[in-house]
Amino acid sequence: MSSDDPDMPRRRRRQSWLDNGQSLRLRFATRASAVLFLGAVVAAGLIKGGYLDYEGSPWLLLPGRAAGIAGMAAEDITITGLEHHQPETLLAAIGVSPGGSLIGFDAIQARNILENLDWVERAKVQRVFPNQLAIEVKEREPFAVWQRGQSYYVIDASGAAMSGLAAGGLASLPLVTGEGANTAAAELINQVSAYPDIMLQMKAAARVGQRRWTLYLDSGITVQLPEKEWREAIALADELNKTQRILSRGIRSLDLRVPGRVNVEVAEAADPDAETAEKKKVAGGN
Predict the structure, then answer these.
(1) Number of helices (H), then strands (E), in the chain
(2) Mean of per-residue pLDDT scores for the chain
(3) Residue ranges of the domains in the chain?
(4) Which among 55-64, 189-198, 256-265 has the top mean pLDDT?
(5) Domain 60-139, second-level architecture
(6) Which among 40, 201, 204, 214 is least buried, having the fewest CB atoms inside 10 angstroms?
(7) Nearest-5° angle of CA 165, CA 171, CA 174?
């Protein structure tokens, strides 16, 4: 290219504009990156400090809105099997809310979380892409109320306590007390249920020394069962009640702890001879 090229000044000016434009874009990109980085740092600090997670914060809705735009929001949630708990309790456990984001949702992990809840016996979680969630649970069945000290727990037939249920709302369940009563309750209650007259009167059963039971009836009578052969003792109490109305004779307690003997404590006996006669009559089932 000769030095007397008439287009040389124009080409130099054009090259200068191109260089200046590239330099401006580079400076703008650098500054924009710095601003974005600074904004990310500030946002992370606010989130970590809990300044954006107050109730009603619009920032909490962003993941769900973004997921909705992408078609990954929980718009269709089906829950089956709940009897004693609310759907909100279940969804909160796995971190899902209607309309919330399903991005990164792990159905297997959600199932494991649900099955670790003390009121869930088993669970099934299935995600149908993009925005459907099907949850099926089987709750543990309330079987009795277990009193331990001053605390009351709803338990299932295995003795597992269910913290999600309030004992006060299930007053119709049998009450068992004492250490070990929770795991031994099912065997006792199932046995007593075979004798409706006694079952209808039983308001509580106390586990004594983790070895034997004492039944408490509505009438205030206690029935003390032996450590061994307690099933036979319940059958004997039922037989005495049918033949002699022993549980309606104003007694205080029926002691069946000694095999082959029936000891009765009379509630009120004005005549000592009458009390002695009563004991002789009942002793041995005669």
Answers:
(1) 8, 11
(2) 77
(3) 60-139, 144-285
(4) 189-198
(5) Roll (3.10)
(6) 40
(7) 100
How many angstroms separate the Cα of 173 from the Cα of each of 6, 169, 185, 203, 255?
Answer: 106, 10, 12, 9, 25
Question: What is the Cα–Cα distance from 210 to 205, expressed in whole angstroms?
Answer: 12
Q: Letter for the amino acid at 124?
A: K
For position 31, what pLDDT does the model report? 61
Amino acid at 81: G
E strand or H helix that includes residue 72: none
The DSSP-derived string for 170-238 is: GTTS-EEESTTHHHHHHHHHHHHTT-HHHHHHEEEEEEETTTEEEEEETTS-EEEPPSSSHHHHHHHHH
pLDDT digits (tens, 9 = 90+) for 48-83: 444 444 444 443 444 444 333 334 465 778 888 888
pTM: predicted TM-score of the whole model, two decimal places? 0.61
Terminal CA-CA length for the chain: 136
Task: Indicate the length of the chain as a whole number.
Answer: 286
Homologous superfamily (CATH) of 144-285 is Cell division protein FtsQ/DivIB (3.40.50.11690)
